[in-house]
Structure formats: structure tokens, C-alpha cells
Design brief:
With about 250 residues, the protein is of the alpha/beta class. It has a single domain, classed as Aldolase class I (TIM Barrel, Alpha-Beta Barrel). The protein is built from ten helices and eight strands. It has an eight-stranded parallel β-barrel with strand order 1-2-3-4-5-6-7-8, surrounded by six helices. α7 links the parallel β7 and β8. α1 runs parallel beside α2 and α3 packs parallel to α4. It is globular, with a radius of gyration of 16 Å.
């Protein structure tokens, strides 16, 4: 069963000026983005600067987002970690505070993907698990050929590699969620289940249009996509500071 279909947002974590997590502003942003068409919300992912969050902050963040958005909107928690032990603990915590699904990148250089994802799936207690292919964070990532043998519902692919995306859509029977806003007009018409996007924090409507196959909108998103791809959460938060008056404080960069 699919976690969701369509475009979801890889949510930023809003911080106060002193660097503390601003749960109210983050939850309010999540609710607004759902009202503007987002079909799912990913909390504590790489865009949410999860590597800088304490376990307590992660739990509070997932719980606040879950309470803020409608019950029918899936909240996905990022639970990837550098060890099975950490990923299992993060997954149990996330499920315990209401996450509907989890997204986990594997430990860098992992040689036992079935063991890792099996442990995460067990900790998820029946909630769906998405593999996360993001070589920039966890190299080499999750090979396409390995996906069908993992206890996961689908994969989020943030590599930005069109050849990899084509391989997934042609050969992997599970759900593929594109993580790069450069490939929306390719992924949607070719049958991707959806997208989980950083850029959707600032451009939710146009991301939806591009995923529906509108090449003009895809091209029109180029400058914002390239800026966010190059500048990461800091660049994205500067956009949100201008459009929403949110704090641009980052813990990364």
C-alpha cells in the first residue's frame, strides 16, 4: 500500500533566533502547506536539519506536526542513522508520537541492507518504511537491484540522477518518490508514485503542476531549484523568511 500519491513536502525545521526549535512555527508551516496541496509531510528529514536535532527535539517535532495537519495526511519521520541501534531507537520514538511512516537512509557503506531495513521495519510496528537513496548523505546509497529484496514500501530517491530514476521506474515494482525538484516533469508522467521535496516549502503549487507533467512550469522553477540545491536549508530558509517572515536561523551552514 502506498504511503501517499502526489507531491509531499520535506519540511524545514524552523528555529528561533537563539537556535532552539520553534515547534509552533514549524507546525503552522506544515498545516499551511497541506492546505496548499501537499499530500504528505516529512518531518526530521535532511531538509529539516535532522542531524542537528536531539532525540527529544525529534520526538517533539514529529508530534507537533502530526497534531497540526489533518488525520488523513501522512506524517513521515526521518529515522535514518549511522547504526542499526540508532535507527531502531529513532523509529520507535517516531512511531510512538504518531508518525504514519518512516524514511530511513542506510549507514554509509552498509553491507547488510536487508538486516538494517528489517530491523527498522520491525521497530516501525507495521507502519510503512521507505528506503532513502541519498548518496550525498549516505554513500553509496541503496542500489535499485537491492530494493525488491528489502522490507520497504518504496524509495525516496534524492540523487537527482535521471538514469537512476528511469531504472527505478522500469525495474522496481514498489513506489518511487522523487526527491529532486529538477525531475518532476519527468517523474510524474512516467509513473512515479510521488515526490518529497525541499522546494515544496516555498513552491508547493508549482511543484504540483510540474509533477503533473507541465514542462514550462518545470523550467520556470529552475532558478529556485538551483538556488536551493546549491544553498541547502539556509537558502530555503531565506526564501521563507521573505515570503512568510519566518526565522532564517539554521544549525547547518
Amino acid at each position: 500500500m502506498s504511503v501517499f500519491q502526489g507531491v509531499g513536502v520535506a519540511l524545514v525545521t524552523v528555529f528561533h533566533g537563539n537556535g532552539a526549535v520553534d515547534l509552533d512555527s514549524t507546525a503552522k508551516l506544515a498545516r499551511e502547506l497541506v492546505e496548499r496541496g501537499m499530500q504528505a509531510v516529512l518531518a526530521a528529514g535532511s531538509t529539516g536539519e535532522a542531524s542537528t536535532l536531539t532525540d527529544t527535539e525529534r520526538r517533539a517535532l514529529v508530534q507537533a506536526v502530526r497534531k497540526a495537519v489533518p488525520d488523513e495526511t501522512p506524517v513521515i519521520a526521518g529515522t535514518g542513522a549511522t547504526s542499526i541501534r540508532q535507527a531502531v531507537a529513532l523509529t520507535r520514538d517516531a512511531v510512538g508520537v504518531g508518525a504514519d511512516a518512516v524514511l530511513a537512509w542506510p549507514p554509509p557503506g552498509s553491507r547488510d541492507l536487508p538486516g538494517y531495513y528489517g530491523a527498522v521495519a520491525a521497530a516501525a510496528g507495521g507502519r510503512p518504511v521507505l528506503a532513502y537513496h541519498f548518496p550525498a548523505v549516505s554513500s553509496p546509497g541503496v542500489p535499485v537491484a537491492a530494493l525488491k529484496n528489502l522490507p520497504v514500501t518504496g524509495v525516496k530517491d534524492s540523487s537527482g540522477d535521471p538514469n537512476r530514476l528511469l531504472d527505478e521506474l522500469a525495474h522496481y515494482p514498489g513506489d518511487t518518490y522523487v526527491g529532486s525538484s529538477a525531475l518532476l516533469a519527468l517523474a510524474g508522467p512516467m509513473g512515479a508514485a510521488g515526490a518529497l521535496l525541499a522546494l515544496a516549502n516555498a513552491e508547493p503549487e508549482r511543484c504540483v503542476v510540474a509533477f503533473a507533467g507541465d514542462a514550462v512550469t518545470q523550467r520556470d522553477l529552475a532558478e529556485r531549484h538551483l538556488g536551493v540545491a546549491a544553498g541547502g536549508p539556509a537558502a530555503l530558509k531565506r526564501l521563507l523568511a521573505r515570503s512568510h517572515g519566518l526565522s532564517a536561523t539554521c544549525r547547518i551552514g
